[in-house]
Write a structure and sequence with these properties.
It is a single chain. By secondary structure, the chain is an alpha/beta fold. The chain folds into two domains: 2-59 and 214-246, no CATH class; 67-202, Rossmann fold (3-Layer(aba) Sandwich). The protein is 49% helix and 10% strand. It has helices at 2-5, 8-22, 28-44, 47-58, 101-116, 133-143, 160-167, 184-193, 220-246, and strands at 79-82, 121-124, 151-154, 174-179, 197-202. A five-stranded parallel sheet has the order 3-2-1-4-5, sandwiched between helices. The longest helix has 27 residues, at 220-246. The radius of gyration is 21 Å and the shape is elongated.
Length: 247
């Protein structure tokens, strides 16, 4: 349902319905409001608007909260890779095609961080199937060179908040959380609310800098990116509210 509610396409259709029903009866001020809303929705359907929103979301993690790339104070801290979901039910622990692209990218980021300075790695993520997300990702991590002795999985959680809570009593306070740049603000909020001293490592960024003229034209990929940014913003607000309730 949230896919529909957060999509600028849904807003555009709703805007057209309102304009069709109310334009003739609306005064000058309300027509100006409707026109402004229409322009805003149109901009969010373009790479220009979508990437501006993505950049704002990813910028919610300040430099001080990002993990150091070298041998800083957090270099020996355990690495926590947050699974990014499954495309389909895995048929075996090495059914890598069942992983979403987000899961692949997050694990790749975690393995790259591990190669810089090896440390224990925990892969968190359950899912609705018998074979869990973290189980498949752990098998892939071994294929990419991470020894089984350095790997652990957390397979009971179904979302980021549950992952942080499930790991609370099993890891030291200082951890390095690996996820996509758009998801990191929400992830760090969850881990800190559960008592961790967490820094973030972005496995990838959804932001694309301006390019050709197509950057200013509506595109389906831009609408999907806008929906992602709004979803993560709503999730962060929800986690802030939940964190205040647990204080």
């Amino acid at each position: 349902m949230h896919h529909l509610l957060l999509s600028p396409m849904t807003w555009g259709l709703l805007w057209l319905a309102i304009v069709w029903l109310a334009w003739r009866r609306a005064g000058t001020a309300w027509r100006a409001v409707l026109a402004t809303l229409g322009i805003a929705i149109l901009v969010l359907c373009t790479p220009l608007g979508a990437n501006a929103l993505i950049r704002w979301v990813e910028g919610q993690v300040p430099a001080a909260s990002r993990c150091s790339a070298g041998t800083g104070a957090d270099a020996d801290a355990p690495i926590v890779v947050l699974a990014g979901g499954l495309e389909d039910e895995p048929r075996a622990t090495d059914d890598y095609i069942a992983l979403t692209p987000a899961s692949w990218r997050r694990l790749r980021g975690g393995v790259e961080l591990w190669r810089r300075h090896p440390a224990p790695m925990v892969i968190a993520g359950g899912g609705p199937f018998v074979i869990k997300e973290a189980t498949v990702l752990a098998r892939l991590a071994q294929d990419w060179g991470v020894p089984a002795a350095d790997l652990r999985t957390e397979t009971a959680s179904t979302n980021t908040w549950e992952s942080a809570a499930a790991l609370h009593d099993t890891l030291p306070a200082r951890v390095r959380v690996v996820s996509s740049a758009t998801h990191l603000p929400r992830a760090l909020l969850a881990f800190r609310a559960t008592g961790f001293q967490a820094c973030g490592w972005a496995s990838d960024s959804a932001y694309v800098a301006p390019g050709s003229v197509g950057y200013f034209l509506p595109q389906l990929s831009a609408m999907q990116k806008t929906r992602l940014a709004l979803y993560e913003t709503a999730g962060t607000l929800s986690y802030r509210w939940r964190a205040r309730r647990t204080d």
